[in-house]
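Translate sequence into structure tokens.
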Amino acid sequence: MGNELDTLTPEKVREIRKKTGMKQEAFWSEVGFSLQQGSNFERGRFNQNNRHLRLMVFMRFVLGIPVMDTHSLRELKQMADFGRSAAAAVANHKDTGEKT
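Result follows.
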């Protein structure tokens, strides 16, 4: 899939969006990005989310896999962060030799 992602240039993504008939705001919202982020990508202004952005477009509009909304993604990130914090606390607790 890496090579296919690399073919998703700003021009190709714009072409995909236009084929869907969707306005920019709706298109980018479908993959969890703001209109500004999508517009910047389509203009060739890359940022740290470039690969993630292309992956989301690929999943949703090339493979047809629905992408979770940003609220759900935020919740998943919070759960992952909590899990990492809990694991670190357990590891720290074991390292100190404290008994529960």
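Note: Residues 68-100 form one domain.
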